Amino acid sequence: MNTRVGTIGNAAPLVADAAPMIDPFGRAVTYLRVSVTDRCDFRCTYCMAENMTFLPKKDLLTLEELDRLCSAFIAKGVRKIRLTGGEPLVRKNIMYLVRQLGRQIGSGLEELTVTTNGSQLARHAEELYDCGVRRINVSLDTLDPEKFRRVTRWGDFAKVIEGIDAAQRAGLKIKLNAVALKDFNEAEMPDMLRFAHGRGMDLTVIETMPMGEIEEDRTDQYLPLSKLRADLERQFTFTDIDYQTGGPARYVRVAETGGRLGFITPLTHNFCESCNRVRLTCTGTLYMCLGQNDAADLRAALRSTEYDGLLHAAIDEAITRKPKGHDFIIDRTHNRPAVARHMSVTGG
Ligand code: SAM
Ligand code: SF4
């Protein structure tokens, strides 16, 4: 057992009992994804409706509270934290949280990463590196600026490329994430692969997940990655590799480019049996599974006392409810999402 002693602000020292988190199916929970805001400066068509209603700012945990929550998870065995959203880099003063968490790298925490749309990356890249971040994910669904504007509704392709340039200059390793969208970027995938690998970046393709109401028909967007893979294999030679980043992607090595290509296939292949993750929202709600509605409120325990005992108990109770797997099925009869909340609430 790992006992951690720390202080929060001017509070008395905390002594946290820190039994590692093992769920009812024997999986150790070592990875925390934190959606630091539900807001975003883009409106990707598969992710959000154009007229999204966001949480009132007063409902958000402060960055100090998010730091305390994350620290409780680190004390309980979390080794990797990913900051996501919404768009994490649009949250005011977000670098405060990055710096605080970065200080814990090497003492409990092994890795701090960020998933971003890249729009604000140019101005934050160096500081991210300085805070200890070494790898980031940048979402990019197309290389065509006009199509980019269409899929993000509000995004500026040139700014994202500027962000990628700045991040690489700063020494950050980048993985590109592309959501595979039928009749949108299917034909572009070979170029995206060459682009990513030509710049020393991995590429991961993601199946659309039926989360939250959007304005389009999700069944129209859905492209099974088994089909995409078969199409790509007409041009490229893939070898399955054992590469693991702690996430759900399965990787291949591409002989022609020498780079890695990942597939995240929640619908065609269940990725649940090795799930080591839980997800925290910016209001302190913990989702034990991306594809289920059950959640635990950690905010009450966080705010009730400065001592972490109650918080640890609330986390332990939540982990006993981690389900075996998700329930992603597109309700084709009613065209309803399987999970009502948007991806931006819990982060990708
Ligand atoms: N705004 C940041 C970004 O886009 O990278 C971080 C949050 S975003 C919700 C995280 C990832 O989820 C992105 O790569 C995005 O493409 C993906 N995503 C969003 N909605 C999705 C959906 N319904 N199905 C599959 N992936 C989705
Ligand atoms: Fe914003 Fe990311 Fe969702 Fe696009 S995918 S709308 S960038 S949160």
UniProtKB/TrEMBL annotation:
Superkingdom classification of source? Bacteria
The residues covered by the Radical SAM core domain are 24-248
Binding, S-adenosyl-L-methionine? Y46, G86, S139, M209
Question: By what name is this protein known?
Answer: GTP 3',8-cyclase
The EC code for this enzyme is 4.1.99.22
Cofactors required = [4Fe-4S] cluster
The EC class name is lyase
Kindly state the subunit structure of this protein: Monomer and homodimer.
Please provide the record's keywords in A-Z order: 4Fe-4S, GTP-binding, Iron, Iron-sulfur, Lyase, Metal-binding, Molybdenum cofactor biosynthesis, Nucleotide-binding, S-adenosyl-L-methionine
**Does the record bear Cytoplasm in its keywords?**
no
**Which residues bind [4Fe-4S] cluster 1 per the record?**
C40, C44, C47
- Pathway the protein contributes to: Cofactor biosynthesis; molybdopterin biosynthesis
Against CDD domains, the record matches this protein to:
Radical_SAM, Twitch_MoaA
- List of residues binding [4Fe-4S] cluster 2: C272, C275, C289
Cofactor binding remark:
Binds 2 [4Fe-4S] clusters. Binds 1 [4Fe-4S] cluster coordinated with 3 cysteines and an exchangeable S-adenosyl-L-methionine and 1 [4Fe-4S] cluster coordinated with 3 cysteines and the GTP-derived substrate.
Q: Does the keyword Transmembrane apply?
A: no
Q: What SMART domains does the database record attribute to this sequence?
A: Elp3
Detail which positions bind GTP.
Answer: R33, R82, T115, K175, R277, V278, R279
Q: Which reaction does it catalyse?
A: GTP + AH2 + S-adenosyl-L-methionine = (8S)-3',8-cyclo-7,8-dihydroguanosine 5'-triphosphate + 5'-deoxyadenosine + L-methionine + A + H(+)
Which family would the database say this protein is a member of?
Belongs to the radical SAM superfamily. MoaA family.
Gene3D superfamilies in the record? Aldolase class I
Functional summary from the UniProt entry: Catalyzes the cyclization of GTP to (8S)-3',8-cyclo-7,8-dihydroguanosine 5'-triphosphate.
Mention any Pfam family matching this sequence: Radical_SAM
Q: Which InterPro entries does the entry link to?
A: Aldolase_TIM, Elp3/MiaA/NifB-like_rSAM, MoaA, MoaA-like, MoaA_NifB_PqqE_Fe-S-bd_CS, MoaA_twitch, MoCo_biosynth_MoaA/MoaC, rSAM
The record ties this protein, via SUPFAM superfamilies, to: Radical SAM enzymes
